[in-house]
What does this fold into?
Amino acid sequence: MDTVMIEIRRAERNFWAILAAIALSLLFAASAGAQTPCEWKTLKGDINLFVANDLGRNGYYDQKPIAELMGKMADEIGPEAVVAIGDIHHFDGVASVNDPLWMTNYELIYSHPELMISWFPVLGNHEYRGNTQAVLDYSKVSRRWQIENRYYSKTFADDKTGATLRIVFLDTTPLIDGYRQSKRYPDVGKQVVDEQLQWLDTTLKEAKEDWIVVVGHHPIYAETKKDIVEQKDMQRRLLPILHKYNNVSMYVCGHIHNFQHIRKNGDTIDYVVNSAGSLSRKVKPTDGTVFCSPSTGFSVISATKESLSLYMIDNHGVAIHQVKID
It folds into this structure.
């Protein structure tokens, strides 16, 4: 009997030891899969911006949870604005400034108090399926929606350190011939490509900020199952201007629905694909890939006088990759 009791007690001890080990393992896994507000604060620079795109799914998939995450992180980081690089509205854009999609894709989703800041958007290809003028005119309805033109630039500065950052916003859909030839995008053919390219050249020539980041919806370089001709059109039209004054640090886009960081040999620009804020896609390395991930999420741009960083944030709030330029 004594021997039996000893074995029973030993089995009990082993059971509780195993249970404790499992509990500790789960606790470690949970802590490894999420960052704390204190860790989020370490991402802060003198100038801070959020980058989000490919959002409009009426709150479904990961859109609403990521919107909540953006609000919580904004509480710690204090971004000055959100850079919204296209496809805020899937699938056929909006019909007017009164379209209900403004509520279900945007206003009621990004409702956290800390996201009641300036949003600087660009048009994506899905906006071009609808009424693009309504996207511009919505600036007259919503105080935080600030798109002054189809392409424009904004300068951000820190008064204490003197750090400066210019974001150059491009309207990339008209730069791609395939969209101009399609009846699904009625407003594309009305845009004059050479006018935008001349504006871009003049803007970069006159830019004197510490850091210049150019953003647009479509990629210049990316791994994708989409038509590679899109990238060829972007490369042909944009690369000569982006390299002309040797002052562009990053080109940041969306459209592909995953995270990618690409560096090409002999090229001084970092090419970044920011993932979808709702529904993402698979990705694999391509020529020049530094990092890639199929996670949904958004990015944080952080600038000081000495460095520029872009942090890729997954849907758990983890900074899974940093693009840093000193």
User: Anything to note?
Assistant: Confidence is low (pLDDT under 50) at residues 1-33. The longest helix spans residues 2-32.
